[in-house]
Design goal:
Structural class of chain B: alpha/beta
Number of helices of chain B: 10
Strand order of the largest sheet of chain B: 6-7-8-3-9-10
Number of helices of chain A: 10
Order of helices and strands of chain B: HEEEHEEHEHHHEHEHEEHH
Number of strands of chain A: 0
Helix content of chain A: over 70%
Number of strands of chain B: 10
Radius of gyration of chain A: 24 Å
Oligomer: heterodimer
Distance between the termini of chain A: 90 Å
Largest interface: A-B, 31 and 41 residues
Largest sheet of chain B: 6 strands, mixed
Shape of chain A: flat
Chain lengths: 251, 273
């Protein structure tokens, strides 16, 4: 067989199904990412806190970092649903499976980021009379999040790839679509290469988005998106300065 | 530039610069009693008493590791004393308080005390203006526009209003420290603590920060200053404290730098001045 005997036109003919599969994968991953960041943050704080909570966090993190996505989704779809008596949809099961794994990963990313913030930041907040929770929420956390963002982006790419295993519960993601097409056309090389292409495309897109977020969070912000965002803020500042000048001019 | 005291106060022609604030002792603002502090098995403060009166400028100096920064930091409870009590105006923090009570008391006490750090500790993710506006919103329940107005005024007072929209990374060390001073002052503290405020600055930038502090001292603010700038200390200190090995070795009023008798104090000053 030569390369020419592969029927690449199949990919274009079935583009709607394939892209729909990718969209499903991105949807599951995006919902899971948002929840995972929250879960990860809570786990990180538990781990940095006092025993026995910190021990539980350590055990959880080390177990779920080691579990493959395939096992996680089978546990959730065929196990957890029985235990809880809830019939999860495949979409819900996929999200929960990802959160179980990536909550553990992201908690470690957040822990490193939180520990990277100089102690003086917290002290300054406290010395200014701010409540410790407020210091955490408005001084430490925003800075830690900025540090964590690039790694969270990598986690997102990993999540999208891990959705490929959710074909076992019948989620219509990229691999499931590919399998369906293959069962009628018998062109696995062509179809799986196309699938890989879609994952790479998604990775590029995610990287682009996270770079834009990074730029927007830089101090001072750079990039077009962030400049548009900070424009309003700058206008408000100018108004404050003008008002003040007018006031001090009068007295 | 500031005018020489003799020009504005004819009666004080012999007094050195900065003695415009009355040395008459007013109300007690800070009282530390029997402060001990241990880090693990290592005790760094061995029972220190210190009283600061309204309008007084207390200077603390001494060798590294003598406990002067730790002592300063117990005043706003950034270091919790292992023993002894801290009182700022009506708020007392000491042994016998429950855990929840301690938390509330610490918050209450810190709102009476402003602090300026060696490393400035501005919030790098916020503009100069927001650095000041955030604690105003957080502690005084002010709305955004009100907080920003006060913040802008505070920046104006230290001559940095046109830097309001800039981030700390875009400012020089001296400018950052001035923003930090403005931030602390905007909350209307009853006493200001300075923890080696010029030690991290390029020599060229020390002057602008000292000028702001000098103006503040002249306005009658109660100040406690840990510093290695002994010339500044001599000029500004109403009460001077030399610390060594976790204790106050010697202390005295204005003129202390020329009149101290403790050989350790003399040795230190000979080495530094």
């Amino acid at each position: 067989m030569t390369l020419a005997s592969y029927d690449w036109s199949l990919v274009w003919e079935n583009r709607t199904e394939l892209l729909h599969g990718l969209l499903t994968a991105l949807e599951v991953s995006a919902v899971a990412l948002v929840i995972s960041v929250v879960v990860g943050l809570v786990l990180a704080m538990a781990r940095m806190g006092k025993p026995p909570l910190s021990w539980l966090a350590v055990i959880y993190i080390n177990v779920f970092r080691g579990v493959p996505a395939l096992v996680s989704v089978i546990w959730v779809y065929f196990g957890l649903s029985l235990v809880l008596g809830i019939n999860f949809t495949v979409f819900q099961a996929g999200v929960i499976a990802l959160v179980l794994l990536y909550g553990a990963f992201i908690s470690e990313i957040y822990r490193a980021a939180l520990q990277a913030i100089p102690h003086g930041q917290r002290e300054a907040g406290l010395a200014l009379g701010m409540h410790p929770m407020r210091v955490f929420a408005q001084v430490v956390l925003p800075q830690a999040t900025k540090i964590a963002i690039p790694n969270i982006g990598s986690m997102f790419i990993g999540m999208v790839k891990d959705t490929s295993t959710f074909t076992v519960i019948g989620l219509l993601e990229v691999v499931r679509v590919t399998q369906n097409l293959n069962s009628t056309t018998f062109q696995p090389f062509v179809l799986y290469t196309a699938a890989a292409g879609l994952y790479v495309l998604a990775a590029f897109a995610i990287d682009f988005v996270f770079r834009a977020i990074e730029k927007a969070l830089a101090t001072p912000p750079s990039g077009r998106v962030s400049k548009a965002l900070t424009h309003r803020k700058r206008r408000r500042l100018e108004a404050v300065m003008l008002r003040l000048e007018a006031l001090s001019g009068r007295t | 530039m500031r005018t020489i005291p003799s020009m504005t106060h004819p009666g004080q022609s012999a007094s050195p610069r900065g003695q415009t604030a009355s040395p008459v002792r007013g109300e007690v603002v800070v009282r530390l009693e029997g402060i001990r502090k241990s880090f693990g098995p290592n005790e760094v403060l061995h029972g220190v008493d210190l009283t600061v009166h309204r309008g007084e400028h207390v200077v603390i100096f001494g060798p590294s590791g003598s406990g002067k920064s730790t002592l300063l930091r117990t005043i706003n409870l950034l270091e919790e004393p292992s023993a002894g009590s801290v009182r700022v105006l009506g708020v007392e923090y000491g042994p016998g308080l429950g855990a929840g009570e301690k938390r509330g008391r610490a918050l209450q006490l810190r709102r009476l005390v402003g602090m300026v750090f060696q490393q400035f500790n501005l919030f790098p993710h916020l503009t100069a203006l927001d650095n000041i506006a955030l604690p105003l919103k957080a502690t005084k329940r002010l709305g955004r526009s009100e907080a920003e107005e006060i913040a802008a005024r505070a920046l104006q007072r230290v001559g940095l209003l046109r830097w309001a929209a800039h981030f700390p990374a875009e400012l020089s060390g001296g400018q950052q420290q001035r923003v930090a001073i403005a931030r602390a002052l905007s909350l209307d503290p009853k006493v200001m603590l300075f923890d080696e405020p010029t030690s991290a600055l390029d020599p060229e930038l020390v002057g602008e920060v000292l000028a702001v502090m000098r103006t503040l001292a002249e306005s009658g603010m109660t100040m406690v200053i840990v510093t290695h700038e002994l010339n500044f200390a001599r000029e500004i200190g109403d009460f001077n404290v030399f610390m060594d090995k976790g204790l106050i070795a010697e202390s005295g009023p204005r003129g202390f730098f020329d009149e101290c008798v403790n050989p350790r104090t003399k040795q230190f000053m000979a080495a530094v001045l």
